[in-house]
């Protein structure tokens, strides 16, 4: 994995991110600035649960989108620094802790989608921290999130993750598959800054499908899911597969991810696969169930403290 990509680990945080940031006076030095920015931003985001960060030139994504999709800003640069931000299962414990802390402060974190709010706040805070560290708070910055559907804000995140080099976009099953974490990733945000980005010529190595032999299985599974969805569209059929008003049909999408994990070792699948609680919230957005999980996680912490 090259230096423009970061699958963070706790080891990467052993050195303080608050190191002196070099002054860049030449064009070559300015071109290398993005590597240090990636390190600093990765450290900030890791401490909030977002452990996948990939730097790329915004122009590369813009060159691949359809004409009806708004491009990322380029600030009149030839190569503009942008980051795609995602997470593995690493996010879950940070998210639950944040919800618990918010509730303890008598805030109400149970409105709408709390994960979207947590993502928005975490990314903004992380970017602002890094801009403060390098003393460039006046740098223009655009942040967009996967949950934004407005035409001017919409980003084709699956395409972006592929074109940035973060994770292969397998159109057979509609999943992005990371070389290490497999399909167990969540695409969250893209940050674009008025800073020099990676050389476009240095980041054009196309990603390869990590599991091409599984495409026929994935295609058949996706067809089965879509066919059953149409077949069980009546309310009576749906009532048979619900508990507490939440349909269990969503678990078929988990099974699709399990199939897409076929190239991973058993050890890797155990390491990266989402917990059952994380999977349930990912697919149902059931707030009452999420609240139960938060309470249980804090009770477990007290038991083992």
Overview of the structural elements:
The protein has 305 residues and is an alpha+beta fold. It has two domains: 5-203, no CATH class; 212-304, no CATH class. The protein is built from eleven helices and nine strands. The strands form three sheets. Strands 1-2-3-7-4 form a five-stranded antiparallel sheet, with helices on both faces. The chain has a two-stranded antiparallel sheet with strand order 5-6. A two-stranded antiparallel ribbon has the order 8-9. Helix 3 crosses helix 11. The longest helix has 20 residues, at 27-46. It is globular and about 50 Å long. The relative contact order is 0.14. Mean pLDDT is 85; it is low at 9-25 and 235-246.
Features:
305 residues, two-stranded antiparallel sheet, alpha+beta, single chain, globular, 9 strands, 11 helices, 13670_t:CDS:1
What is the gist of this entry?
This protein has 305 residues and is an alpha+beta fold.
Question: What's the arrangement of secondary structure elements?
Answer:
Layout: E1 5-7, H1 27-46, E2 52-57, H2 58-62, E3 80-87, H3 91-104, H4 114-133, E4 141-145, H5 157-164, E5 168-170, E6 175-177, E7 186-196, H6 215-231, H7 235-240, E8 242-243, E9 246-247, H8 251-260, H9 266-272, H10 276-284, H11 287-304
Antiparallel strand pairs: 1-2, 2-3, 3-7, 4-7, 5-6, 8-9
